[in-house]
Amino acid sequence: QVQLVESGGGLVQAGGSLRLSCAVSGRTFSSYNMGWFRRAPGKEREFVTAIDWSGGMTNYADSVKGRFTISRDNVKNTVYLQMNSLKPEDTANYYCAAVLWGGIYRPRVYSAYDYWGQGTQVTVSS
Length: 126
Description:
The chain contains no helices and eleven strands. It has strands at 3-7, 10-13, 18-25, 32-39, 46-51, 58-60, 68-73, 78-83, 92-100, 115-116, 120-125. The strands form two sheets. Strands 2, 4, 5, 6, 9, 10 and 11 form a seven-stranded mixed sheet that branches. The chain has a four-stranded antiparallel sheet with strand order 1-3-8-7, with no helix packed on it. A hairpin with a 4-residue loop joins strand 7 and strand 8.
């Protein structure tokens, strides 16, 4: 069993920054591809970004490209989401997700992930 725990959310003004963390326990973290998704009130879950098991491949939604950066530390078993130049439309509950590497990996598809955290709320005020 894999457990994911997000942290780092909060309230920030537009233009500000936050760094989210997702601590992973239970299995070999370096074997997992990791993703971040978000869900705003009344909206569908939305892909934000993903990183493969090695850290060598990243993928970003157009809406966050150039502002958000995903990274991972395979020693600390943690994946990070650095969010800069935040906008009110970034307000959402942010979830990290994990799937074991191997096979066809569709990083933007939420059903591709087997494990999910409980989410951390990010609120950006205008």
